[in-house]
Every structure is written in structure tokens, then in C-alpha cells.
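re: ur msg from earlier - yeah i can do the S-adenosylmethionine complex, just paste it... oh wait u already did. ok heres what im feeding in:
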Amino acid sequence: MMIDSYLNRILCADCLTTMKEMPGNSIDLVVTSPPYNLKNSTGNGMKPCTTSGKWANAAKPDFKLVPKSNGVGDVWEFTQEMKNGHPAPFPVALIDRIIGSTNAQNAQIVLDPFMGSGTTAIVAMGLKRNYIGIELSPDYCRMEA
Ligand SMILES: C[S@@+](CC[C@H](N)C(=O)[O-])C[C@H]1O[C@@H](n2cnc3c(N)ncnc32)[C@H](O)[C@@H]1O
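and the outut:
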């Protein structure tokens, strides 16, 4: 499928499957918060990370931040999102800062593969960017509808 058919939709699916089906080099920016505290959960949770922290083939060469967007420092404080039925929503202001800091020319298509309650989609729409959301839980997908 062409990337256009994914745009501005929330797909109720496993992101690991869906991302493999998407055309390569089609996403400008990924903003996400994957499930966490998995080491504390029962079952076969995450294993400790043992890599160096650097990704092979990372950080797109043409990607640009808008001027002065790095002036906000590296510790950001936001009020917790309270009016949201999801247990771990992003604060809207956090995602607004992240997407808004990217140049619209080269961050037109924003993917959130762990969409939760839909915060990334709401902010992307407000900033006139295209979004693609993927969320496994039918309950959270209904929340986004
Ligand atoms: C930390 S929450 C994301 C919260 C989101 N940032 C928000 O603002 O509401 C992680 C989400 O990933 C979803 N999830 C877990 N495994 C997934 C998978 N394989 N594919 C897609 N979504 C998945 C969970 O259902 C959960 O809603």
C-alpha cells in the first residue's frame, strides 16, 4: 500500500506487523512512548538493554529543527495529563513542543506506533501535519474514535 492510504488514520493493530507492511523511508518523524514498566510485569517482559545506545543508520540527514528550538534545555517539566482515561497519556504540551520544534517541510508525516489515547494525533492535526497512529488495544482505539 502507498503511504497515502495510512495517513490520518489510527490503525487498531500490532505495530510490529503494521510497520513491516508500510513502505520504507516514508515516515518523517516518530513520536512515541512504548509500553514501560514491563520488567515489573508478570510474563516475558523486556530484557535489559545491553547496546551502546547508538543506533546504526539513525537521525535522517535532512532533518531540521526550527531555529532556537534547542533553547529549552534538556530537562522539560509539564503538568501531568489528568483528564484522560488512558493510564499513561502524554501531556499535550510535550508533544506540541516536540512536533512543533520540527520544520514542517521535513516532518510532514508523524508516526506514533503506540498511540494510546491519541495525543500525538491530536497535536499533529493542530499543527497541520499528517499522522499515522497504531494501537493494539481495541479499548484505546475506541477512545480515539
Ligand atoms: C505508554 S502507552 C502510550 C500512551 C500515549 N502516548 C498517550 O498519550 O495516550 C503505550 C501503548 O502502547 C500500546 N501497545 C502495546 N503493544 C503494542 C503493539 N505491539 N502495537 C501497538 N500498540 C501497542 C498499549 O496498548 C498502550 O496503549
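cool cool. The radius of gyration is 16 Å. ping me if u need the other ligands too
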